[in-house]
Amino acid sequence: MPGITREEVAHLARLARLELKGEELDHFAGQLDDIIGAVARVSEVADQDVPPTSHPLPLTNVMRADEVRPSLTPEQALSGAPAQEQQRFKVPQILGEDQQS
Fold first, then answer.
1. Which residues touch 70 (CB under 8 Å, ≥6 apart)?
2. What DSSP character marks residue 74?
3. What angle in degrees, to the nearest 10, is found between the helix axes of 22-45 and 6-15?
4. How far apart are CA 61 and CA 25, in angstroms?
5. Contact status, residue 36 vs residue 4, Cβ threshold 8 Å
6. By C-alpha distance, which of 25, 1, 31, 26 is closest to 13?
């Protein structure tokens, strides 16, 4: 299989909107060629009777059951806030958007 060319790397860089220098094109061409070769070797090993998997061992969900427990009231949660409005933290506007009510 022929290696990935410098022109192909330049094309991929343009598609990704990356500006690469000449030495970077050569460097990445070699790296991408190694990656493509490694994927090709894995493809050769994979057989039809081997099911695709995302993990080598089965995974089990270990999250606890979701249950309602007592928590802070809005007043308690906001008690240390320097400013509050309508049971929410009030913070300075940072994006220049119109205020929403």
1. none
2. H
3. 100
4. 44
5. yes
6. 25
